[in-house]
Amino acid sequence: MYRTHTCGELRISDVNKQVTLAGWVQRSRKMGGMTFIDLRDRYGITQLVFNEEVNAALCEQANHLGREYVIQVTGTVNERFSKNSNLPTGDIEIIVSELNILNAALTPPFTIEDNTDGGDDIRMKYRYLDLRRTAVRKNLELRHKMTIEVRKYLDSKGFIEVETPLLIGSTPEGARDFVVPSRMNPGQFYALPQSPQTLKQLLMVSGFDRYFQIAKCFRDEDLRADRQPEFTQIDCEMSFVQQDDVLELFEGMAKYLFKELRGVELTEPFLRMSWADAMRYYGSDKPDLRFGMKFVELMDILKGYGFSVFDNAAYIGGICAEGAAHYTRKQLDALTEFVKRPQIGAKGMVYARVEADGNVKSSVDKFYTQEILQQMKEAFGAKPGDLILILSGGDAMKTRKQLCELRLEMGNQLGLRDKNKFALLWVVDFPMFEWSEEESRLMAMHHPFTHPKDEDIPLLDIDPAAVRADAYDMVCNGIEVGGGSIRIHDAKLQAKMFEILGFTPEKAEEQFGFLMNAFKYGAPPHGGLAYGLDRWVSIFAGLDSIRDCIAFPKNNSGRDVMLDAPGFLNQEQLDELNLVVDVKE
Amino acid sequence: MYRTHTCGELRISDVNKQVTLAGWVQRSRKMGGMTFIDLRDRYGITQLVFNEEVNAALCEQANHLGREYVIQVTGTVNERFSKNSNLPTGDIEIIVSELNILNAALTPPFTIEDNTDGGDDIRMKYRYLDLRRTAVRKNLELRHKMTIEVRKYLDSKGFIEVETPLLIGSTPEGARDFVVPSRMNPGQFYALPQSPQTLKQLLMVSGFDRYFQIAKCFRDEDLRADRQPEFTQIDCEMSFVQQDDVLELFEGMAKYLFKELRGVELTEPFLRMSWADAMRYYGSDKPDLRFGMKFVELMDILKGYGFSVFDNAAYIGGICAEGAAHYTRKQLDALTEFVKRPQIGAKGMVYARVEADGNVKSSVDKFYTQEILQQMKEAFGAKPGDLILILSGGDAMKTRKQLCELRLEMGNQLGLRDKNKFALLWVVDFPMFEWSEEESRLMAMHHPFTHPKDEDIPLLDIDPAAVRADAYDMVCNGIEVGGGSIRIHDAKLQAKMFEILGFTPEKAEEQFGFLMNAFKYGAPPHGGLAYGLDRWVSIFAGLDSIRDCIAFPKNNSGRDVMLDAPGFLNQEQLDELNLVVDVKE
């Protein structure tokens, strides 16, 4: 028995108890003849006291303990003279009578404190030390609690968690697969799943009715910020459901989780916004609704007055930043520079302030009468003190996306994107297809198994690009936290979909034959969705990056710098796998 | 809304309700002018009734429904005339007024019944149909319930589930790794974990204190029966613990699971048997204690009477099969053939019956007096009617293993291995090392991080083969369901261990440097264990094979015959990975 109590457990009611604790030396200080040590474990911090007058040898030993030494102490719980109300254990201390060093420690390369002096790289290399910091560990405790609650909710709704295999077949449609050479099947490879999509659909064919899995998924993509080659999905599927059934059940889950994990009661039904409206009014399929600044289209009002930028535009639209008329020229210039950055790509920005007397003063006053500007003001519902920002361009969708960036930036600048406020909505009616410039063909926006809206099925033959899908995303604070669709359960409709996506029947058979065959044996109507667990947790934890809620994340080159992986194989391993490595210079 | 109720839900109290159900046609039968259809979903079976006289067209439509058609019906709940007490819904039926075919079905290649006519191969190819069978689905429901209860228990004990990465580094010690080529790190490979062993130890260094994970693990081994290339572990680790702390906590979990999942109360503390005793008395490190037949050594009694087989043996030992003296000569000859099979390898078997008068009649009577045979009888505590079976050989350990096979076979023949009886124990004090003939060196019996027993540490330098470890297995009914050890937390002791295992310091650093380095920064004493989830579930479910509790298992060639995986990559995929496939003929 290494300990009778943890370091977070003792209270004033334990005074005079003989106890044994074990943990890490967080810090020590010497005051006169006394040495105080903060002993830390996962559960908290307890103060240890060594008195030179009482036991000089023990005190001397304590003076030589370094940071992060692992020790075991026995002593008596004592009421503190000066209490620390910031610590649950702050009323007591341990008068130590025995000290046992369980393990010495080198001085850590950065401080094990919430505000550490360690940079990203060193903390990743010594991730096992970084994880000692309470701030980091709390994220993983939250992740644990979240998966417990997700399972509790879904189990209570009759969902069965089924583990699907990780060594499956490669399906080149979609993102790039990670592959695994098979030694027993020479020359052949497994693929790691990008998601359990087809397998969960097979489980519906099997009559599992309600399936879920907290599943590891893999995508070999070039990593941008906040992407990981392996990530975790809360993957769900239901049979005999229509879109509303799915949305209601998972809206319930979101509300349950917010209540259990954050104490936040979301009482209102989530807004359901069509993809078309989301793009039109927010320039994004994942609008951040913590704040307003809904887009207002200005083509009718501002076109045709000789301002060639607007006169030649396919789209003119703006946002109204409430109370931001105080923005200086310098601030406005900076905003213009912001939208002109190559990542955003706007040509320029027009602004207008609503002055105290209601007059509108704009950067393009020479083209517009006050009467026109007042019409514009009305269109925004703008008040004195408000700032109107306008973008225009030759491609409506591109300009809307630029305006979206501007809106989000203004939200940031005006402090409207509070991490402790949560705005959830469903974006629905996504387009079935999107045009791929790269491949010069229609691609499935969601995936090839997505059901088109019944009323749009006739359009599949005449105008597939106009077809909308029974697809939906759950959005929280401008982040897509989950998404899914009703699936096609009819083999003929599925075959047509593959045809539109440019699959020959042979290629469709080769890649998805097992699914299309399964559908011939009695597939129920079904649908589902998947949540990105990493992203969900990072929202609950108020984190900017998903990396901080992953125990051992990889860097942007897909490397685990702590394990120094990936690495080279030896020749024997390669030979067994019938592989030759041929790196082109 | 596809249904108002499931097919397992309606009762006599629902009579006269208007309901809508959806599901699969299990079977249909025509009786006079009535058609009866059993409609099936995951939740049960409900009888549908169509009456030709009431609605001839509808009845005609029902007569054309094939097996496994997916249909939706609306109708009225009616009390059955002849009730079926085997079904929870057996008191009612639905008088159908509307029928909607949601999906037609080809005739399945085997019957969807508990006792199906489908062979193994066809059922694996059409696994999605096999999973429709209640008997198979129940196993996966049990698996789901088991993971829910495991998490509930461990969460209540303060364990945190932490997901560790699946793309890690290759560690050639131990079994063969599955590897994953990295596109972004040309020529380099990740490995899929054989277990999260080193990562969970790092989490202990991080102060996580109590960790668990239900984790996918991978081993590229030649598959014997009941092995899968990917399998699932309940993986656990604790800090500041000694062996007893671990055993107590996980004994508690086993008892909890038996109670929750099987309604079995295991009230007694589990027996703890040393590895040496397990080998000595049962010839196995996983003895099946559902029955007796403990080995009795007979060297002192039977040696030196001119029976050269025994006189030259290094080991003579036997078992006493209670009440089996009625075994015929034919049965005994069959047992002799059984132990002489090459997989077992005994040279022969000696038997002795205890007759009604207490005399012993043996197959080697010409060498032994009745007095000697009576001594032998006493050694077994044998009674009239018992059968004694004796093996001998030149290698004690090999002979004990042969005797173990004989004991298990007798257990089977005498019906002593009841699947509804559970005998659990801990086997402890495993040897630290075992000699590898293949590699001509000592190998870690458990793994290289296992802590030797404190009292045996001095033997590391002088007789490493005699060193015992703080390692333990949980055994249930002759099956190892879990195992683990106290780990080394001292970098110096770990280095010595690698030295004994034949690692150069460079090789140890290359493969496990990250762990040994971590240990320098304050590693707590720690230990843990891992359960094989697949095996655990198969015991609870009373299955002979783990395959039946895995949704989509692979065959003995590591193939998923349903998905037809693994498969060949296209040239573009290989090029991106800098790989050339070179299969030797």
Q: How would you characterize the overall build of this protein?
A:
2 copies of one chain form a homodimer. Chain A is α+β, with helices and mostly antiparallel strands and 585 residues long. The first copy, chain A, has 3 domains: 12-103, Nucleic acid-binding proteins (OB fold (Dihydrolipoamide Acetyltransferase, E2P), Beta Barrel), CATH 2.40.50; 137-272 and 424-549, BirA Bifunctional Protein, domain 2, CATH 3.30.930; 291-413, Gyrase A, domain 2, CATH 3.30.1360. The first copy, chain A, is 29% helix and 25% strand. Chain A has helices at 56-63, 120-125, 127-130, 134-156, 197-205, 243-262, 275-282, 299-302, 308-311, 329-340, 370-380, 396-413, 459-462, 491-500, 505-519, 533-541, 571-576; strands at residues 18-31, 34-41, 44-51, 70-79, 92-103, 160-161, 179-181, 189-191, 210-218, 230-239, 271-274, 296-297, 315-321, 350-354, 360-362, 387-393, 424-428, 433-436, 441-444, 471-476, 479-486, 526-532, 579-581. An 8-stranded mixed beta sheet of chain A has the order 6-9-10-22-21-20-17-11, with helices on both faces. The first copy, chain A, has a 5-stranded mixed β-barrel with strand order 1-2-3-5-4. In chain A, helix 4 (134-156) packs across helix 6 (243-262). Chains A and B meet through strand 1, helix 3, helix 4, strand 6 and strand 7 of A and strand 1, helix 3, helix 4, strand 6 and strand 7 of B.
Beta-strand segment tally of chain A? 23
Number of domains of chain A: 3
User: In CATH, what is the class of the largest domain in chain A?
Assistant: Alpha Beta
Structural class of chain A: alpha+beta
- CATH H-level homologous superfamily name of the largest domain in chain A: Bira Bifunctional Protein, Domain 2
The shape of chain A is globular
How many helices of chain A in DSSP terms?
17
Radius of gyration of chain A: 30 Å
How big a fraction of the residues of chain A is strand?
A: 15-25%
